[in-house]
């Protein structure tokens, strides 16, 4: 490592003990985001920069809103109860022992000055101004956010499917709706409770619907007055296909499979409104419902607009194949945030798709390139031809198109599990997920709703004579009435 490379301008890092205080010679690497790219890049840097981290010549700071990385491909299984929520997340402090993990949110980046501002939970509670942090190398990886449209009622009644909280909330909500339907005498309430509308036919929407439908179908057996046929599942997709990730043929198979399960798949259709708990579609149909799940794509994180870095027309960071931000030395990116040229594509100007497959591999190249750059060594291009995709459609059901091979049903589902078990980070998580799958093969599924967990003080407040806070009403996903389980 060249000492000279580490002689960067002054600056102050986050508050830490004196032994780790950065010096003028310390290369400060700021990683924004603790998802796929953030976590895997930091892991790679921990490995590649071991001597520098030990000697204090390099320091890595990770800023992310949650102290864990979410393995998003397992969210549908978490919603179905096949994997417990704790096991679809990886605790960052445990795996990033050589990094400083700050739970906070980066608000702005001024790369010309090599500074970023960020808020923490404590600062927000105290009403403090965002703190400023100076860095030498920036890895900007805040991922994407749900792409919403101004659909009336959506903000009040919809729920996304990107976080573990949403997955768990949705599971509790769906089971809660069965409880509501089972206990009402009003046919309109029952009908709305048993109608579930999903908007968006990509990975997230199809897998979430597939897993939840399967779970609810099973749960219905335990209700004396609900049968699986009473449940109405609607998938609304604006284009003429679903699951583009597995190709047209497997996409058509998925539609047949879902329709075979009585799922109402509507192509070339949009959600126009969901006010007053009625989902109105562009084909004129209306579904009274208490559940609208919005998974109609993602858009780049709004943080990107609060930086001085170059963006593409679609709002992603303009990057090179070396994962540097174009024309901004010292700035790096990958994953959903970055428009990275796909050097394996036949046509010019193609970019890597925003998915986990690229995010994970790009993060490794990114870590290697940052280490190489600090040492004055040459950088390498990121090159990975898309291998295809696997998707789960419920227990023992799936679809896959990988390396030209098309699989459906049980073999695809099995491949989905093997693939994701091999990919979920850390041996600890792999062992726990495998144990859960094995146990759920031996015992029956859990069908209980713990929506009341979202309002843990309600019972005590009632006992103490207070008025319980306006808790989850069971109307909006993410909450069910207490005692509904
Ligand atoms: C339900 C679901 C299923 C999926 N299934 C698949 C699949 O089967 N296969 C596949 O290839 N892809 C799948 N994907 C897509 C895949 O998960 C994403 O492409 C991948 O997570 C992108 O990685 P990333 O690091 O760019 O973003 P993320 O993993 O989303 O990480 C972004 C991180 O940045 C943090 N952050 C956000 N804002 C800030 C801020 N202001 N300051 C600091 N930190 C911030 C976030 O909290 C998060 O930790 C799925 C996605 C979903 C939602």
Automatic annotation (TrEMBL):
It comes from the Bacteria. Residues 476-485 have a biased composition (Gly residues). Belongs to the NADH dehydrogenase family. Residues 28-356 form the FAD/NAD(P)-binding domain. The keyword Heme does not apply. Keywords: FAD, Flavoprotein, NAD, Oxidoreductase. Signal peptide: none annotated. InterPro entries: FAD/NAD-bd_sf (IPR036188), FAD/NAD-binding_dom (IPR023753), NDH-2 (IPR045024). This is NAD(P)/FAD-dependent oxidoreductase. Residues 463-475 have a biased composition (Low complexity). The keyword Flavoprotein applies.
């Amino acid at each position: 490592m060249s000492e000279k490379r580490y002689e960067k301008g002054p600056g102050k890092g986050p508050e830490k003990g004196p032994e780790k205080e950065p010096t003028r010679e310390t290369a400060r690497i700021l990683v924004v985001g603790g998802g796929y790219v953030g976590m895997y890049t930091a892991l790679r840097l921990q490995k590649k920069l071991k001597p520098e981290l030990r000697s204090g010549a390099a320091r890595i700071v990770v800023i992310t809103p949650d102290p864990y990385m979410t393995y998003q491909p397992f969210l549908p299984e978490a919603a179905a109860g096949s994997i417990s929520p704790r096991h679809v997340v990886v605790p960052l402090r445990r795996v990033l022992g050589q990094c400083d993990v700050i739970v906070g949110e980066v608000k702005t980046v001024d790369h010309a000055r090599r500074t970023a501002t960020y808020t923490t939970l404590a600062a927000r509670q105290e009403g403090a101004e965002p703190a400023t942090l100076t860095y030498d190398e920036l890895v900007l990886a805040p991922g994407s956010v749900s792409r919403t449209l101004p659909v009336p009622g959506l903000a009040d009644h919809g729920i996304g499917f990107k976080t573990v909280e949403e997955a768990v909330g949705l599971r509790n909500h769906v089971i809660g709706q069965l409880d509501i339907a089972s206990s009402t005498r009003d046919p309109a309430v029952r009908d709305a409770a048993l109608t579930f509308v999903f908007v968006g036919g990509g990975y997230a929407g199809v897998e979430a619907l597939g897993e939840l439908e399967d779970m609810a179908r099973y749960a219905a057996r335990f209700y004396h007055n609900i049968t699986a046929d009473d449940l109405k599942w609607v998938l609304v997709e604006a284009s003429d296909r679903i699951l583009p990730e597995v190709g047209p043929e497997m996409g058509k198979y998925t539609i047949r499979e879902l329709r075979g399960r009585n799922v109402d798949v509507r192509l070339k259709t949009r959600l126009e409104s969901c006010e007053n708990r009625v989902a109105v579609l562009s084909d004129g149909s209306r579904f009274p419902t208490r559940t609208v799940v919005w998974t109609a794509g993602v858009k780049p994180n709004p943080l990107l607009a609060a930086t001085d870095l170059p963006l593409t027309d679609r709002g992603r960071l303009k990057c090179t194949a070396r994962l540097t931000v174009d024309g901004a030395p010292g700035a790096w990116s990958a994953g959903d945030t970055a428009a990275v040229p796909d050097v394996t594509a036949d046509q010019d100007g193609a970019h890597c798709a925003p998915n986990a497959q690229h995010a994970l591999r790009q993060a490794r190249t990114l870590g290697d390139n940052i280490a190489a750059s600090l040492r004055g060594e040459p950088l390498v291009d990121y090159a990975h031809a898309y291998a295809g995709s696997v998707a789960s459609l419920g227990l023992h059901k799936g679809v896959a198109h990988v390396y030209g091979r098309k699989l459906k049903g049980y073999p695809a589902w099995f491949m989905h599990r093997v693939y994701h078990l091999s990919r979920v980070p850390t041996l600890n998580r792999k062992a726990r997920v495998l144990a859960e799958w094995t146990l759920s093969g031996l015992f029956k599924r859990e069908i209980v709703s713990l929506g009341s967990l979202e309002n843990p003080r309600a019972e005590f407040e009632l006992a103490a004579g207070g008025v319980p806070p306006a808790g989850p009403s069971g109307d909006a996903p993410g909450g069910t009435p207490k005692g509904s389980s």
